[in-house]
Design a protein that fits this description.
The protein has 404 residues and is α/β, with parallel strands linked by helices. The chain has helices spanning 14-25, 38-42, 68-74, 88-102, 186-197, 227-232, 242-249, 251-254, 259-268, 279-282, 342-347, 376-379, 389-403, and strands at residues 7-10, 30-33, 111-116, 122-126, 131-134, 136-139, 162-164, 178-182, 201-206, 235-236, 239-240, 288-290, 292-299, 305-311, 316-321, 323-326, 350-351, 354-355, 368-370. The strands form 6 sheets. The chain has a 5-stranded parallel β-sheet, covered by helices on one side. The structure holds flavin-adenine dinucleotide. Flavin-adenine dinucleotide binds next to helix 1 and helix 2.
Amino acid sequence: MNADQRVVVVGAGPYGLATAAHLKARHVPFRVFGQPMDGWRSHMPGRMYLKSSPFSSSISAVVPGRRLEDFRAEEGRAPGGERDPVPLEEFVRYGLWFQQRTVPELEQVTVRRIDARPGGGFRVLLDDGEEFAGTAVVLAVGVVRFAHVPPELAPLTRDGLVSHTADHVDFGRFAGQDVAVVGAGQSALESAALLYEEGARPTLLARAATLAFGSPPRTDSPADRPLRERVRAPSALLGNGWPLVACSRAPAAYRHLPDRVRDRLLHTVLGPYGAWWLRERVDGRFPVRCGVRVVAAEPDGRGGVRLLLDAADGQAAELRADHVIAGTGYRVDLGRLDLLSPELRRRVVTAGGAPRLSAGFESSVPGLYFTGLAAAPTFGPLLRFVSGTGFAARRISAAATRQA
Ligand SMILES: Cc1cc2nc3c(=O)[nH]c(=O)nc-3n(C[C@H](O)[C@H](O)[C@H](O)COP(=O)(O)OP(=O)(O)OC[C@H]3O[C@@H](n4cnc5c(N)ncnc54)[C@H](O)[C@@H]3O)c2cc1C
Protein backbone atom coordinates (compact mmCIF):
# COMPACT_ATOMS: atom_id res chain seq x y z
CA MET A 1 0.00 0.00 0.00
CA ASN A 2 1.54 3.37 -0.93
CA ALA A 3 1.35 6.51 1.19
CA ASP A 4 -1.66 7.82 -0.79
CA GLN A 5 -3.79 4.85 0.20
CA ARG A 6 -4.81 5.98 3.59
CA VAL A 7 -7.83 7.31 5.39
CA VAL A 8 -7.80 10.91 6.62
CA VAL A 9 -9.83 11.59 9.77
CA VAL A 10 -10.65 15.28 10.33
CA GLY A 11 -11.53 16.00 13.96
CA ALA A 12 -10.30 14.91 17.38
CA GLY A 13 -13.45 14.98 19.48
CA PRO A 14 -15.15 11.73 20.61
CA TYR A 15 -16.20 10.79 17.05
CA GLY A 16 -12.84 11.45 15.35
CA LEU A 17 -10.91 9.68 18.12
CA ALA A 18 -13.24 6.65 18.08
CA THR A 19 -12.98 6.41 14.26
CA ALA A 20 -9.18 6.51 14.47
CA ALA A 21 -9.17 3.88 17.25
CA HIS A 22 -11.28 1.49 15.15
CA LEU A 23 -9.22 2.06 11.97
CA LYS A 24 -6.09 1.33 13.96
CA ALA A 25 -7.54 -1.90 15.33
CA ARG A 26 -8.21 -3.00 11.72
CA HIS A 27 -4.67 -2.03 10.65
CA VAL A 28 -6.01 0.50 8.13
CA PRO A 29 -3.39 3.23 7.53
CA PHE A 30 -4.73 6.62 8.62
CA ARG A 31 -3.81 10.15 9.64
CA VAL A 32 -5.98 12.02 12.15
CA PHE A 33 -6.05 15.79 12.69
CA GLY A 34 -7.49 18.32 15.12
CA GLN A 35 -7.19 19.78 18.59
CA PRO A 36 -8.16 17.02 21.05
CA MET A 37 -11.56 17.60 22.70
CA ASP A 38 -11.61 21.16 21.41
CA GLY A 39 -15.41 21.29 21.11
CA TRP A 40 -15.61 20.57 24.84
CA ARG A 41 -12.66 22.73 25.93
CA SER A 42 -13.35 25.88 23.90
CA HIS A 43 -17.10 25.93 23.21
CA MET A 44 -18.87 24.82 26.38
CA PRO A 45 -19.09 26.52 29.79
CA GLY A 46 -16.21 25.31 31.97
CA ARG A 47 -18.52 24.79 34.96
CA MET A 48 -21.01 22.67 33.00
CA TYR A 49 -22.02 19.07 33.78
CA LEU A 50 -22.78 16.39 31.21
CA LYS A 51 -26.43 15.61 30.59
CA SER A 52 -25.58 12.01 29.71
CA SER A 53 -24.90 9.64 32.60
CA PRO A 54 -21.45 8.11 33.25
CA PHE A 55 -22.93 4.84 31.91
CA SER A 56 -23.37 6.36 28.43
CA SER A 57 -20.43 8.78 28.25
CA SER A 58 -17.60 6.53 27.10
CA ILE A 59 -15.72 6.92 23.82
CA SER A 60 -15.62 3.69 21.84
CA ALA A 61 -12.28 1.90 21.40
CA VAL A 62 -11.74 -1.67 20.30
CA VAL A 63 -9.10 -2.33 22.94
CA PRO A 64 -10.41 -2.86 26.47
CA GLY A 65 -9.79 -0.48 29.38
CA ARG A 66 -10.73 2.81 27.70
CA ARG A 67 -14.13 3.51 29.27
CA LEU A 68 -14.87 6.48 31.52
CA GLU A 69 -15.01 4.08 34.46
CA ASP A 70 -11.50 2.76 33.59
CA PHE A 71 -10.20 6.33 33.62
CA ARG A 72 -11.83 6.89 37.00
CA ALA A 73 -10.39 3.65 38.35
CA GLU A 74 -6.93 4.73 37.22
CA GLU A 75 -7.41 7.93 39.25
CA GLY A 76 -8.44 5.76 42.21
CA ARG A 77 -12.11 6.76 42.08
CA ALA A 78 -15.42 4.87 42.04
CA PRO A 79 -17.09 4.36 38.60
CA GLY A 80 -19.91 6.85 39.37
CA GLY A 81 -23.61 6.22 38.99
CA GLU A 82 -26.73 7.65 37.37
CA ARG A 83 -27.10 10.09 40.27
CA ASP A 84 -23.60 11.62 39.83
CA PRO A 85 -23.54 13.97 36.85
CA VAL A 86 -20.11 14.09 35.19
CA PRO A 87 -18.37 17.51 35.39
CA LEU A 88 -17.19 18.83 32.03
CA GLU A 89 -13.66 19.25 33.38
CA GLU A 90 -13.53 15.52 34.20
CA PHE A 91 -14.89 14.50 30.79
CA VAL A 92 -12.26 16.64 29.05
CA ARG A 93 -9.51 14.97 31.12
CA TYR A 94 -10.97 11.57 30.18
CA GLY A 95 -10.99 12.51 26.47
CA LEU A 96 -7.33 13.63 26.60
CA TRP A 97 -6.39 10.45 28.49
CA PHE A 98 -8.24 8.39 25.85
CA GLN A 99 -6.43 10.20 23.03
CA GLN A 100 -2.96 9.82 24.56
CA ARG A 101 -3.42 6.09 25.17
CA THR A 102 -5.42 5.13 22.11
CA VAL A 103 -4.54 7.58 19.35
CA PRO A 104 -1.12 9.05 20.22
CA GLU A 105 -0.47 9.60 16.51
CA LEU A 106 -2.99 12.49 16.49
CA GLU A 107 -1.58 15.52 14.61
CA GLN A 108 -2.73 18.75 16.25
CA VAL A 109 -3.05 20.65 12.99
CA THR A 110 -6.14 22.12 11.30
CA VAL A 111 -7.21 20.82 7.90
CA ARG A 112 -7.68 23.89 5.70
CA ARG A 113 -9.02 22.40 2.49
CA ILE A 114 -10.16 19.12 0.95
CA ASP A 115 -10.44 18.77 -2.84
CA ALA A 116 -11.39 15.87 -5.09
CA ARG A 117 -8.52 14.41 -7.12
CA PRO A 118 -9.11 13.63 -10.78
CA GLY A 119 -9.64 9.89 -11.02
CA GLY A 120 -10.74 9.45 -7.39
CA GLY A 121 -9.50 10.13 -3.88
CA PHE A 122 -8.78 13.45 -2.21
CA ARG A 123 -6.12 16.12 -1.88
CA VAL A 124 -5.79 17.47 1.65
CA LEU A 125 -4.21 20.83 2.52
CA LEU A 126 -3.16 21.46 6.11
CA ASP A 127 -2.85 24.81 7.89
CA ASP A 128 0.92 24.33 8.11
CA GLY A 129 1.10 24.19 4.29
CA GLU A 130 1.58 20.41 3.88
CA GLU A 131 -0.42 18.83 1.04
CA PHE A 132 -1.01 15.11 0.61
CA ALA A 133 -3.44 12.61 -0.91
CA GLY A 134 -5.84 10.17 0.71
CA THR A 135 -8.20 7.47 -0.54
CA ALA A 136 -10.93 8.35 1.94
CA VAL A 137 -11.83 11.26 4.22
CA VAL A 138 -13.91 10.99 7.39
CA LEU A 139 -15.32 14.33 8.53
CA ALA A 140 -15.74 14.32 12.31
CA VAL A 141 -15.72 18.10 12.65
CA GLY A 142 -18.32 18.29 15.41
CA VAL A 143 -21.13 20.66 16.20
CA VAL A 144 -19.67 24.17 16.61
CA ARG A 145 -19.78 25.20 12.96
CA PHE A 146 -23.49 24.28 12.92
CA ALA A 147 -24.44 26.63 15.79
CA HIS A 148 -27.85 28.08 14.94
CA VAL A 149 -28.85 31.69 15.73
CA PRO A 150 -32.45 32.54 14.68
CA PRO A 151 -32.67 35.05 11.81
CA GLU A 152 -34.36 37.67 14.04
CA LEU A 153 -31.22 37.76 16.22
CA ALA A 154 -28.44 36.92 13.75
CA PRO A 155 -27.77 40.51 12.47
CA LEU A 156 -26.87 41.64 16.01
CA THR A 157 -24.07 39.05 16.36
CA ARG A 158 -21.92 41.45 14.29
CA ASP A 159 -22.25 44.17 16.98
CA GLY A 160 -21.47 41.69 19.77
CA LEU A 161 -24.95 42.20 21.22
CA VAL A 162 -26.02 38.63 20.47
CA SER A 163 -23.97 35.43 20.84
CA HIS A 164 -24.58 31.67 20.81
CA THR A 165 -24.07 29.42 23.83
CA ALA A 166 -21.15 27.85 21.90
CA ASP A 167 -19.29 31.19 22.17
CA HIS A 168 -18.92 30.94 25.96
CA VAL A 169 -16.59 29.10 28.28
CA ASP A 170 -17.03 31.52 31.20
CA PHE A 171 -20.07 33.70 31.99
CA GLY A 172 -18.20 35.80 34.59
CA ARG A 173 -17.98 38.79 32.23
CA PHE A 174 -21.78 39.21 32.40
CA ALA A 175 -21.83 39.78 36.20
CA GLY A 176 -24.18 42.69 36.98
CA GLN A 177 -25.75 42.65 33.49
CA ASP A 178 -29.24 41.83 32.19
CA VAL A 179 -28.93 38.87 29.84
CA ALA A 180 -31.79 37.35 27.83
CA VAL A 181 -31.29 33.65 27.13
CA VAL A 182 -33.41 32.25 24.29
CA GLY A 183 -34.29 28.54 24.30
CA ALA A 184 -35.60 25.74 26.49
CA GLY A 185 -33.07 22.93 25.99
CA GLN A 186 -30.19 21.87 28.20
CA SER A 187 -27.74 24.48 26.87
CA ALA A 188 -30.17 27.38 27.34
CA LEU A 189 -31.26 26.24 30.82
CA GLU A 190 -27.75 25.50 32.07
CA SER A 191 -26.35 28.75 30.62
CA ALA A 192 -29.09 30.74 32.37
CA ALA A 193 -28.38 28.90 35.65
CA LEU A 194 -24.63 29.56 35.36
CA LEU A 195 -25.22 33.23 34.47
CA TYR A 196 -27.35 33.62 37.60
CA GLU A 197 -24.77 31.83 39.76
CA GLU A 198 -22.02 34.07 38.35
CA GLY A 199 -23.81 37.30 39.27
CA ALA A 200 -25.71 38.18 36.07
CA ARG A 201 -29.48 38.82 35.86
CA PRO A 202 -30.74 36.28 33.28
CA THR A 203 -34.26 36.11 31.83
CA LEU A 204 -35.09 32.89 30.03
CA LEU A 205 -37.35 33.20 26.96
CA ALA A 206 -38.88 29.92 25.80
CA ARG A 207 -41.38 29.19 23.03
CA ALA A 208 -42.59 26.09 24.92
CA ALA A 209 -45.64 26.51 27.16
CA THR A 210 -43.69 25.07 30.14
CA LEU A 211 -40.13 23.98 30.83
CA ALA A 212 -39.46 20.23 30.87
CA PHE A 213 -36.92 18.40 33.05
CA GLY A 214 -35.91 14.74 33.27
CA SER A 215 -36.92 12.67 36.30
CA PRO A 216 -34.26 11.98 38.94
CA PRO A 217 -32.99 8.37 38.72
CA ARG A 218 -34.03 6.25 41.68
CA THR A 219 -30.98 4.01 41.56
CA ASP A 220 -27.33 4.48 40.67
CA SER A 221 -27.24 1.55 38.27
CA PRO A 222 -29.92 1.04 35.58
CA ALA A 223 -29.75 -2.71 36.37
CA ASP A 224 -30.98 -2.04 39.94
CA ARG A 225 -34.27 -0.48 38.80
CA PRO A 226 -37.34 -2.44 39.95
CA LEU A 227 -38.37 -5.12 37.43
CA ARG A 228 -41.80 -3.57 36.77
CA GLU A 229 -40.15 -0.24 35.87
CA ARG A 230 -37.57 -1.94 33.66
CA VAL A 231 -40.34 -3.69 31.71
CA ARG A 232 -42.44 -0.53 31.35
CA ALA A 233 -39.47 1.69 30.41
CA PRO A 234 -36.29 -0.32 29.74
CA SER A 235 -32.88 1.36 29.98
CA ALA A 236 -30.80 2.11 26.93
CA LEU A 237 -27.80 4.27 26.02
CA LEU A 238 -30.02 7.31 25.40
CA GLY A 239 -32.15 6.88 28.54
CA ASN A 240 -35.22 4.98 29.70
CA GLY A 241 -38.30 4.08 27.62
CA TRP A 242 -39.16 2.07 24.51
CA PRO A 243 -38.67 4.97 22.00
CA LEU A 244 -35.16 5.52 23.39
CA VAL A 245 -34.46 1.77 23.27
CA ALA A 246 -35.42 1.80 19.57
CA CYS A 247 -33.24 4.84 18.77
CA SER A 248 -30.29 3.45 20.80
CA ARG A 249 -30.37 -0.09 19.46
CA ALA A 250 -31.57 0.37 15.89
CA PRO A 251 -29.86 3.41 14.35
CA ALA A 252 -29.34 1.32 11.18
CA ALA A 253 -33.09 0.79 10.85
CA TYR A 254 -33.75 4.50 11.49
CA ARG A 255 -32.03 5.24 8.17
CA HIS A 256 -34.80 3.40 6.31
CA LEU A 257 -37.64 5.51 7.72
CA PRO A 258 -39.22 8.08 5.38
CA ASP A 259 -37.48 11.52 5.46
CA ARG A 260 -40.49 13.15 7.09
CA VAL A 261 -40.62 10.62 9.95
CA ARG A 262 -36.85 10.77 10.58
CA ASP A 263 -36.96 14.56 10.70
CA ARG A 264 -39.85 14.55 13.18
CA LEU A 265 -38.22 11.93 15.43
CA LEU A 266 -34.89 13.77 15.44
CA HIS A 267 -36.56 16.88 16.81
CA THR A 268 -39.02 15.26 19.20
CA VAL A 269 -37.11 12.32 20.75
CA LEU A 270 -35.07 13.78 23.63
CA GLY A 271 -35.68 17.39 23.12
CA PRO A 272 -35.81 20.06 24.34
CA TYR A 273 -35.55 19.46 28.09
CA GLY A 274 -33.18 19.99 31.01
CA ALA A 275 -31.36 17.30 33.00
CA TRP A 276 -33.08 16.35 36.28
CA TRP A 277 -30.36 18.02 38.37
CA LEU A 278 -30.93 21.42 36.69
CA ARG A 279 -34.48 21.95 37.93
CA GLU A 280 -33.52 23.26 41.38
CA ARG A 281 -30.99 25.63 39.77
CA VAL A 282 -33.70 27.12 37.52
CA ASP A 283 -37.07 27.03 39.32
CA GLY A 284 -37.66 30.28 41.23
CA ARG A 285 -34.09 31.53 40.71
CA PHE A 286 -34.59 33.96 37.81
CA PRO A 287 -37.44 35.11 35.53
CA VAL A 288 -38.63 32.50 33.03
CA ARG A 289 -41.10 33.56 30.33
CA CYS A 290 -42.66 30.59 28.58
CA GLY A 291 -44.88 30.71 25.48
CA VAL A 292 -43.02 33.68 23.96
CA ARG A 293 -41.28 34.09 20.62
CA VAL A 294 -38.68 36.72 19.75
CA VAL A 295 -40.01 38.44 16.63
CA ALA A 296 -37.54 41.32 16.33
CA ALA A 297 -34.36 42.62 17.95
CA GLU A 298 -32.60 45.97 17.60
CA PRO A 299 -29.91 48.00 19.38
CA ASP A 300 -31.56 50.15 22.06
CA GLY A 301 -29.16 53.08 21.65
CA ARG A 302 -27.80 52.55 25.19
CA GLY A 303 -25.40 49.72 24.39
CA GLY A 304 -28.02 47.00 24.81
CA VAL A 305 -30.79 45.25 22.87
CA ARG A 306 -34.55 45.78 22.68
CA LEU A 307 -36.42 42.54 22.01
CA LEU A 308 -39.94 42.47 20.66
CA LEU A 309 -41.76 39.40 21.94
CA ASP A 310 -44.90 37.72 20.71
CA ALA A 311 -46.71 35.85 23.46
CA ALA A 312 -48.87 32.75 22.88
CA ASP A 313 -51.90 34.76 24.08
CA GLY A 314 -51.36 37.24 21.21
CA GLN A 315 -49.95 39.97 23.51
CA ALA A 316 -46.86 41.77 22.25
CA ALA A 317 -44.26 42.77 24.81
CA GLU A 318 -40.78 44.28 24.95
CA LEU A 319 -37.72 43.27 26.90
CA ARG A 320 -34.45 45.14 27.27
CA ALA A 321 -31.17 43.31 27.84
CA ASP A 322 -27.49 44.19 27.85
CA HIS A 323 -26.85 41.03 25.86
CA VAL A 324 -28.77 38.13 24.28
CA ILE A 325 -27.53 34.54 24.24
CA ALA A 326 -29.11 32.15 21.74
CA GLY A 327 -29.41 28.70 23.29
CA THR A 328 -31.09 27.60 20.09
CA GLY A 329 -29.03 24.56 19.26
CA TYR A 330 -27.33 23.29 16.14
CA ARG A 331 -28.51 22.65 12.56
CA VAL A 332 -26.52 20.59 10.11
CA ASP A 333 -25.86 22.62 6.97
CA LEU A 334 -23.34 21.34 4.45
CA GLY A 335 -23.02 24.89 3.08
CA ARG A 336 -21.11 25.81 6.25
CA LEU A 337 -18.40 23.17 5.71
CA ASP A 338 -16.08 25.50 3.86
CA LEU A 339 -13.12 23.18 4.31
CA LEU A 340 -14.69 21.09 1.52
CA SER A 341 -14.05 22.58 -1.92
CA PRO A 342 -17.15 24.07 -3.58
CA GLU A 343 -16.97 21.27 -6.17
CA LEU A 344 -17.08 18.57 -3.47
CA ARG A 345 -19.92 20.32 -1.66
CA ARG A 346 -21.91 20.44 -4.89
CA ARG A 347 -21.43 16.70 -5.40
CA VAL A 348 -22.68 15.69 -1.94
CA VAL A 349 -26.39 14.86 -2.16
CA THR A 350 -28.21 16.41 0.79
CA ALA A 351 -31.63 16.35 2.41
CA GLY A 352 -32.58 19.44 4.42
CA GLY A 353 -28.95 20.59 4.36
CA ALA A 354 -27.51 17.33 5.77
CA PRO A 355 -25.60 14.77 3.69
CA ARG A 356 -27.47 11.63 2.66
CA LEU A 357 -25.39 8.70 3.89
CA SER A 358 -25.07 5.02 3.06
CA ALA A 359 -25.27 2.29 5.72
CA GLY A 360 -21.48 2.76 6.06
CA PHE A 361 -21.75 6.57 6.62
CA GLU A 362 -20.46 7.29 3.08
CA SER A 363 -21.90 10.27 1.17
CA SER A 364 -22.73 10.33 -2.53
CA VAL A 365 -19.03 11.13 -3.13
CA PRO A 366 -17.20 7.78 -2.95
CA GLY A 367 -14.74 7.77 -0.03
CA LEU A 368 -16.20 10.87 1.69
CA TYR A 369 -17.69 9.96 5.09
CA PHE A 370 -19.53 12.08 7.69
CA THR A 371 -19.90 11.19 11.36
CA GLY A 372 -21.22 12.74 14.59
CA LEU A 373 -23.97 15.37 14.38
CA ALA A 374 -23.82 15.49 10.54
CA ALA A 375 -24.91 11.82 10.54
CA ALA A 376 -27.81 12.30 13.00
CA PRO A 377 -30.38 13.18 10.32
CA THR A 378 -29.59 9.75 8.75
CA PHE A 379 -29.13 7.53 11.82
CA GLY A 380 -31.12 9.39 14.48
CA PRO A 381 -30.55 10.92 17.90
CA LEU A 382 -27.89 8.37 19.00
CA LEU A 383 -25.44 10.20 16.74
CA ARG A 384 -25.93 13.42 18.72
CA PHE A 385 -24.28 11.82 21.74
CA VAL A 386 -20.95 10.26 22.70
CA SER A 387 -22.76 6.93 23.09
CA GLY A 388 -23.10 6.76 19.28
CA THR A 389 -19.30 6.60 18.75
CA GLY A 390 -19.22 2.76 18.77
CA PHE A 391 -21.93 2.29 16.14
CA ALA A 392 -20.42 4.96 13.87
CA ALA A 393 -16.78 3.92 14.22
CA ARG A 394 -17.54 0.21 13.63
CA ARG A 395 -19.40 0.95 10.42
CA ILE A 396 -16.99 3.55 9.05
CA SER A 397 -13.89 1.47 9.78
CA ALA A 398 -15.48 -1.59 8.14
CA ALA A 399 -16.41 0.41 5.02
CA ALA A 400 -13.02 2.14 4.84
CA THR A 401 -11.23 -1.22 5.20
CA ARG A 402 -12.96 -2.44 2.07
CA GLN A 403 -11.88 0.75 0.30
CA ALA A 404 -8.26 0.91 1.45
C1 LIG B 1 -23.36 22.31 25.47
C2 LIG B 1 -23.33 20.89 25.00
C3 LIG B 1 -23.45 19.85 25.91
C4 LIG B 1 -23.39 18.53 25.48
N1 LIG B 1 -23.50 17.53 26.41
C5 LIG B 1 -23.43 16.24 26.01
C6 LIG B 1 -23.50 15.18 26.96
O1 LIG B 1 -23.70 15.39 28.15
N2 LIG B 1 -23.35 13.90 26.51
C7 LIG B 1 -23.14 13.61 25.19
O2 LIG B 1 -23.00 12.42 24.86
N3 LIG B 1 -23.09 14.59 24.26
C8 LIG B 1 -23.23 15.89 24.64
N4 LIG B 1 -23.16 16.90 23.71
C9 LIG B 1 -23.02 16.54 22.30
C10 LIG B 1 -21.53 16.43 22.00
O3 LIG B 1 -21.04 17.64 21.50
C11 LIG B 1 -21.30 15.36 21.03
O4 LIG B 1 -21.79 14.16 21.56
C12 LIG B 1 -19.79 15.12 20.76
O5 LIG B 1 -18.95 16.16 21.17
C13 LIG B 1 -19.61 15.01 19.33
O6 LIG B 1 -18.27 14.67 19.12
P1 LIG B 1 -17.55 15.08 17.80
O7 LIG B 1 -16.26 14.37 17.82
O8 LIG B 1 -18.46 14.85 16.66
O9 LIG B 1 -17.38 16.66 17.88
P2 LIG B 1 -16.53 17.63 18.80
O10 LIG B 1 -16.38 17.10 20.16
O11 LIG B 1 -17.17 18.96 18.62
O12 LIG B 1 -15.10 17.64 18.10
C14 LIG B 1 -14.86 18.24 16.85
C15 LIG B 1 -13.39 18.11 16.53
O13 LIG B 1 -13.18 18.53 15.19
C16 LIG B 1 -12.01 19.31 15.14
N5 LIG B 1 -12.04 20.09 13.90
C17 LIG B 1 -13.04 20.88 13.43
N6 LIG B 1 -12.67 21.42 12.24
C18 LIG B 1 -11.44 20.93 11.96
C19 LIG B 1 -10.53 21.11 10.89
N7 LIG B 1 -10.82 21.90 9.84
N8 LIG B 1 -9.34 20.47 10.94
C20 LIG B 1 -9.02 19.67 11.97
N9 LIG B 1 -9.85 19.46 13.01
C21 LIG B 1 -11.04 20.09 13.00
C22 LIG B 1 -12.02 20.08 16.43
O14 LIG B 1 -10.73 20.56 16.74
C23 LIG B 1 -12.47 18.96 17.39
O15 LIG B 1 -11.34 18.20 17.74
C24 LIG B 1 -23.23 18.24 24.12
C25 LIG B 1 -23.11 19.28 23.19
C26 LIG B 1 -23.16 20.59 23.62
C27 LIG B 1 -23.03 21.67 22.60
